[in-house]
Automatic annotation (TrEMBL):
One of its GO terms (molecular function) is ATP hydrolysis activity. GO terms for cellular component: cytoplasm; nucleus. ATP binds at G15, G17, K18, T19, T20, R117. This is Adenylate kinase isoenzyme 6 homolog. Broad-specificity nucleoside monophosphate (NMP) kinase that catalyzes the reversible transfer of the terminal phosphate group between nucleoside triphosphates and monophosphates. Has also ATPase activity. Involved in the late cytoplasmic maturation steps of the 40S ribosomal particles, specifically 18S rRNA maturation. While NMP activity is not required for ribosome maturation, ATPase activity is. Associates transiently with small ribosomal subunit protein uS11. ATP hydrolysis breaks the interaction with uS11. Belongs to the adenylate kinase family. AK6 subfamily. The lineage of its organism: Eukaryota, Sar, Alveolata, Ciliophora, Postciliodesmatophora. HAMAP family: Adenylate_kinase_AK6. Residues 116-126 are annotated as: LID. Gene3D superfamilies: P-loop containing nucleotide triphosphate hydrolases. InterPro entries: Adenyl_kinase_AK6 (IPR020618), P-loop_NTPase (IPR027417). Its EC number is 2.7.4.3. Keywords: ATP-binding, Cytoplasm, Kinase, Nucleotide-binding, Nucleus, Ribosome biogenesis, rRNA processing, Transferase. It comes from Stentor coeruleus.
Length: 178
């Protein structure tokens, strides 16, 4: 789907820095293109709008309903200029996004960041294993055209800044070429 303002997905294992990068990106894009971009933290939206049918008691998270999530997002996707921050992506229609940013981080960084956020040990282990076994990486590359995927390491503040600059450059270019 081509839209004047690109739809952007920021994905990766929890703790890789999706929320941080999304906010920086939205902040900058809002200054450059006022009113044209909206950030959705999908985990929060799923809880707020109850886009789930079951609650996973072991991990204390909702088991989101893919159809409910897609139905809720569809009208906004059609308008373009949506930035979505979410740790899963295989259920989104293939033509929804113009740019996908996949964040990676080392096990040590993910561990430290999730410990700091008070995640239970079980949830941390699951996420670290997911990163080791490339779960989100494989999901992204199996679900979308590789030409729209940007894979970035997000271990340091300098890398985060470089990731932001690279993403902005690609988004600006995309806007000009549309
Ligand atoms: N590149 C980085 N360098 C240093 N610290 C970082 C970096 N990326 C993220 N952090 C820090 O790691 C923590 C987790 O980051 P963030 O919440 O953005 O991750 P997330 O991928 O959105 O996680 P979740 O999916 O659980 O919401 C935050 O305290 C953030 O400041």
């Amino acid at each position: 789907m081509e839209s004047k303002f690109p739809n952007i997905l920021i994905t990766g294992t929890p703790g890789t820095g999706k929320t941080t990068l999304s906010r920086l990106l939205e902040d900058q894009l809002s200054q450059e293109y006022p009113g044209k971009f909206t950030l959705i933290g999908l985990s929060k939206m799923i809880v707020d709008q109850m886009l789930f049918k079951n609650w996973n008691k072991d991990f204390d998270v909702p088991e989101f309903d893919e159809d409910m999530v897609c139905d809720a997002l569809e009208p906004r996707i059609q308008q373009g200029g949506l930035i979505i921050d979410f740790h899963s992506c295989g259920f989104f229609p293939r033509d929804w996004f113009d740019i996908i940013i996949l964040l990676r981080a080392t096990n040590t960084n993910i561990y430290d960041r999730l410990i700091e956020r008070g995640f239970p040990e079980k949830k941390i282990t699951e996420n670290i294993e997911a990163e080791i076994f490339n779960v989100v990486h494989d999901e992204v590359y199996e679900s979308f055209d590789p030409s729209i995927i940007i894979s970035q390491n997000s271990n340091t503040v300098d890398e985060m800044q470089a990731n932001l600059e690279q993403a902005l450059q690609i988004i600006r270019q995309k806007i000009i070429s549309c």
